[in-house]
Amino acid sequence: MSMPRHDQRPSNPDKVLYPQDSFRKQDVFDHYRSVSGPLIAHARGKPATLRRFPDGIDAEGFFQKEASSHFPEWIARAEVPQRGGGPPVHHVLVDDEATLLHLADQAALEIHTALSTVDDLERPVLAVLDIDPPEEVEIATLRHTVRAVCALFTEDGLDPHVQTTGGKGFHVAAPLDGSRDFEEVRGWIREIADRAARDEPDRLTTEQRKNKRGDRIFLDVNRNAYGQTMIAPYSLRARPGAPAATPIDLDELGRVHPRSYGLTNLARRLARKPDPWSDLR
Hints:
This protein is α+β, with helices and mostly antiparallel strands. It is built from six helices and 14 strands.
């Protein structure tokens, strides 16, 4: 099995993947090299789903669960049974920098990871509540909601950790000891979300149907399920500006919005501030 050289370089480095910003594959490659340490620490052992854009974000991309047959043999894979039958899916495991950089070279702009590990796919090691606002919600309202959800997590004995999503909202996550299955965890997080929505029914909702939410913030618990994923910490997003999902301390929230960090500034942030989620794996 031939392992990659330490001086990995992307093919076609000048190919533009973010046309509005003129960000090239080389820029994406450099981003993932700069964040490889903390990203891999959070992704290790968790089956990954890739979101690839070979022709850039202005063209149609695709989600990829099954590892491509042309991926090198040295890339670790996890065999994940499908619920309801069918052949298992062989997901990539982002367990080392060489794998991460190979995926960057394949224009895998987004890395999404499971909430459980290969050690026990049925029992999550992370719980996540996705705070998903409509476009017109003011940032002050969104921050208030994050703080309220964190308070409810704490009341229930969970240790809340906040992440910008690089999209519209925030994630509130908490580590688990792996003793509960997905159904138990989803029920627990749904109960927290329901309490938050009851406290502020004009502002928050757990309504699954989009046309029933109105202008309220959706508290989404659906990631807490077998086969579901969340955006990996420090992963880029396929959006103009190349924002990235970024863990933050709660006391930073008043200065941060969901797309504060990304390709242009995340390496500098990590150079001056340790990973706020370093205690969460």
